[in-house]
Each structure stands twice: as C-alpha cells, then as structure tokens.
Amino acid sequence: MLKSPRCGARTRVGGSCQSPAVRGKKRCRMHGGAKGVGAPKENQNALKHGTYTKVAFQQREQMRGLFEEARKLICDPEASND
User: Fold this and answer.
1) Which residues, other chains included, contact 28 with Cβ-Cβ below 8 Å and sequence gap of 6+?
2) Following DSSP, what letter does each residue of 13-50 receive, concatenated?
3) Does position 25 have pLDDT exceeding 70, yes or no?
4) 43-61: buried (b, 16+ CB within 10 Å) or exposed (e) per residue?
5) Is residue 58 located within the same domain as residue 31?
6) What is residue 10's three-state secondary structure?
7) What is the pLDDT of residue 47?
C-alpha cells in the first residue's frame, strides 16, 4: 500500500492529495478515480448547441484550411500560377 501510486490532485492548501490512486487511474476515489465518474462517451448533452461535436470540429478544421488557401492566394498571387 505504501508503494502504490498516489493521487495527483491538489488540495485546498496547495499540496498533493497523497491518497492511493485507484488502480488504473491517476486519481483517488475522492478526486475522480471512482468507477462511473465523468461524462459518458459520446455525451448527448453536448448536442444542445453542437459546438463540441466531432462534426463541428471537422467543419472548423475544413474552414481553417479554406481560409489558409485564400490567404495564400490573396497575399502571394504568383504562387497560384504553378
């Protein structure tokens, strides 16, 4: 028990928790290592506005690429004559 990994959470005083971490996790049972803690996979609550869905991330990445291409064409018109 003394050699088991310790919880990495910070206490109110600013030090480390020092409780043993749950097997396979980095936190103790009081700081989020317990079974069933955290949001479920593919959290349906995120669909309320859709900002953090996979589709939204993909669309933003695609838009970034289009903006970068447009920026290159506007700033360096000779580069498009390839």
Assistant:
1) 7, 9, 17, 19, 20, 21, 22
2) TSSB--SBPPTTSSS-TTTT-STT-SPPTT-GGGGGT-
3) yes
4) eeeeeeeeeeeeeeeeeee
5) no
6) strand
7) 65
Look up the pTM and report it.
0.40
Number of domains into which the chain is organized: 2
| Mean pLDDT, rounded, for 10-35 | 84
Return all residues near 53 (Cβ < 8 A) that are at least 6 apart: 46, 47
Residue type, 38: G
| Contacts for 82 with CB less than 8 Å, ≥ 6 apart | none
First to last CA, the chain: 66
Q: Tell me which residue range forms the domain holding 5.
A: 1-37
Is the same domain home to 5 and 33?
Answer: yes
Tell me the chain's radius of gyration from C-alpha atoms: 23
